[in-house]
Amino acid sequence: MEYRVKDLGLAERGKLQIEWAERNMPVVARMIRERFEREKPLKGIKVGAVLHVTKETAALVRTLKAGGAEVRLAASNPLSTQDDVAAALVKDGIEVCAWRGMNEDEYFSCIEFVAKWEPDIVIDDGGDLHAMLHDKFPSIAGKVWGGTEETTTGVIRLRAMEKQGVLKYPVIAVNDARTKMMFDNRYGTGQSTFDGILRATNILVAGKVVVVAGYGWVGRGIALRAKGLGARRVIVTEVDPIRALEAVMDGFEVMPMREAAKVGDIFITATGNKAVIRKEHMELMKDGAILANAGHFNVEIWIPDLEELATEKREIRPCVTEYRLKDGRRIYLLGEGRLVNLVCAEGHPSEVMDMSFANQALSVEYLVKNKGRLPAKVYNVPLEIDQEVARLKLKSMGIEIDELTEEQKKYLESWKLD
């Protein structure tokens, strides 16, 4: 077995963390796993994954293994790995290359550790594995049966690859499943983003002005939670007129970032784009402004501009870097501008990741069953999988719903006036 983790001695603690997560993930860690153990739909399949190495990811990986797969796992962020979980997975027979605090070279070497393994199926979070396979190892990419993508940023990259005609295998956009996007992105990120901000700063949100950049599902969730925590004002910045209008109708203020920069106390980016907060905005911010990023990559808050404006910087608390500007103002950057919920906290609650990773497990099974039948395109999660995840989640919660009668089905299928 090959692996690179911080300390195998942490495995027992990691095992307890995984146990706690799986207790709250009945769909992927019990319902789907029990079927996978019986049927072995992934027997002999090599699954290469680049994901945040957390206790929730462990639940998914263990279910894939229960289904007969060999799994190799690397981190999708240099600062998001939970080292005790990584150690526990190695003890559980998973080849892992991940530890918290990797430098850039180490980060990409671990992704290469997965790519060179020549996996049959690839699971990615952010698109770095997909990009590396196509850019550095095209011959390996050409043999991949199919892949999945966990997050908005990665789906954007994959759709660009498809548009340019370079995508070599079919990819299922797990991020876009309704049981992922509407719950993980909205409720998961909404809660976990503030979990990260509060663990890092211990500030009071009530009475503050919170600025949310982007009003996709992630931005919606963050804005909603800011309001619930008592923010005095919640301001949304957007480039999409439809989303901006939606934010207005949802009761939030909408304005350009150049105006929001003057009044905000806490700024949270959630766009998937680069340089959303940059020099021209930082120059307008009040003393003590806090900057946090909820997007996948550390490019939304343009750190080179912050470095250029600062005369000095220091880590004033774990996860909090103070930048002092020439005029004496201070701006505080959380988690080096990386995913604040995973760098400064533990990521999404297990309950919501249950649905996201159930989609992943069932999408991997779908790709195996449909090997060679799907052209190299980006696909939505099949509706039957999306609905099955919702049904299983409701069942695990003890909730029943109505079913259409045959008469109702016939009525919905008819177009005639009578």
From TrEMBL:
Cofactor: NAD(+)
InterPro entries from the UniProt entry: Adenosylhomocyst_ase-like_sf, Adenosylhomocysteinase-like, Ado_hCys_hydrolase_NAD-bd, NAD(P)-bd_dom_sf, S-Ado-L-homoCys_hydrolase_CS
Keywords: Cytoplasm, Hydrolase, NAD, One-carbon metabolism
PROSITE patterns the record matches: ADOHCYASE_1 (PS00738), ADOHCYASE_2 (PS00739)
E.C. number(s) listed in UniProt: 3.13.2.1
Residue stretches making up the S-adenosyl-L-homocysteine hydrolase NAD binding domain: 185-347
Major location (coarse): cytoplasm
Localization in the cell: Cytoplasm
Residues annotated as binding NAD(+): 151-153, 185, 214-221, 238, 273, 294-296, 341, 348
A GO CC term attached to the entry: cytosol
Cofactor note text: Binds 1 NAD(+) per subunit.
Molecular-function GO terms, alphabetical: adenosylhomocysteinase activity
Pfam families assigned: AdoHcyase (PF05221), AdoHcyase_NAD (PF00670)
This protein's record includes keyword Hydrolase: yes
GO biological process: L-homocysteine biosynthetic process; one-carbon metabolic process; S-adenosylmethionine cycle
Binding-site residues for substrate, renumbered to this chain: T54, D125, E150, K180, D184
Catalytic activity: S-adenosyl-L-homocysteine + H2O = L-homocysteine + adenosine
Family: Belongs to the adenosylhomocysteinase family.
Family annotation (NCBIfam families): ahcY, PRK05476.2-3
UniProt name for this protein: Adenosylhomocysteinase
Organism: Pyrolobus fumarii (strain DSM 11204 / 1A)
